[in-house]
Amino acid sequence: MIIVGIDPGLKGAIAFIGKKKVKVIPVPTLKMTKTKNMLDENGIRDYLYNYKTKIEHVFIEKAQAMPKQGGVSMFNYGTGWGILRGICCGLFLPYTLVHPKTWKKVICKDTPKSKEASIIVAKRLWPKINLLPTPRSKKDSDGLADAMCIGEYGRRLLAGKI
Question: Could you tell me where the beta strands, DSSP code E, fall in the chain?
Answer without folding.
Answer: 2-7, 13-17, 22-26, 29-31, 37-39, 55-61, 95-98
